[in-house]
Design brief:
A three-stranded antiparallel beta sheet has the order 1-2-3, with no helix packed on it. It starts with a helix and ends with a helix. A hairpin with a 5-residue loop joins strand 2 and strand 3. It is elongated and about 75 Å long. It has 299 residues and is mainly alpha-helical. Helix 2 crosses helix 4, helix 6 packs antiparallel against helix 8 and helix 6 packs across helix 10. The chain folds into two domains: 86 residues, DNA polymerase, domain 1 (Orthogonal Bundle); 164 residues, Intergrase catalytic core (hpI Integrase, Chain A, Orthogonal Bundle), CATH 1.10.443.10. The longest helix is centred in the first third of the chain and has 20 residues.
Length: 299
Amino acid sequence: MQTDLDAYFEHLRSERQVSPHTLDGYRRDLLKVADHCERRQSRRSWSDLTSHDVRQLIAEQHRQGLSSRSLARLLSSLRGLYRYLNQEGRCPHDPTTGVSPPKREKRLPRLLDTDRAMQLLDGGIEDDFIGHRDQAMLELFYSSGLRLAELVSLDVEHLDLSGGLVQVLGKGNKARVLPVGRKAREALAAWLALRAQANPVDGALFIGQRGRRLTPRAVQLRVRQAGARELGQHLHPHMLRHSFASHLLESSRDLRAVQELLGHADIGTTQIYTHLDFQYLAEVYDQAHPRAKRKQESS
């Protein structure tokens, strides 16, 4: 089994030219499988491994605390090995066929509550180029729920301050028009009055002092610094997007509208925010479910 592994690792290194980091990941995963087989003395070659063995291995690693993400990676590493062994004629079957890792646990998004969001946005603003630019970015993130890539790709022409609208290009090159709140419009107007100072090289809405469009990394850095300064905590652009979505859902009760504003193709993606408003869901249940009504009427 080790001979086949050594040949596969060399294939990954020389022919696939995977990075050393990726190669180390494959090696760790596949050595776990080899160790499992060594403990089962009847499994002396990769051809001896069955789908039952793979499921047993996944279950064993899961019991030992390996995360769903790590188990998915282990299974992917094993599939890659068997694709290689099949192609090289070293093994006639693939025991990973039909085997799935445990479902990944859904992590609730981190976000700011309303008071913390107001604390961030109502903090002190330096009356200069950088201060007004950063304030406009923060306000727009929270006002319209933009993704980082959507914000950095904005041009001035995409903004309609008089109409309170901004046009963004989201995933899959799907354009959507979003409302821009009053505070965000005020911050953007103040920023646009200063933007020309940097002699912009193109129509980018958010630029650095040399006139060039801000990179995603630069925006992330400025947001993180604002979070540390105003809130004393880590902050990233997507946290503002999550905050926008959850606060809007709490107020509007309209999941479909929030889905459209976020640009989610699947409403299931948007439903992660509903955990924040269980009280409302309970009220809807009590008012709408026939058996809930009967219980209320009989009590």
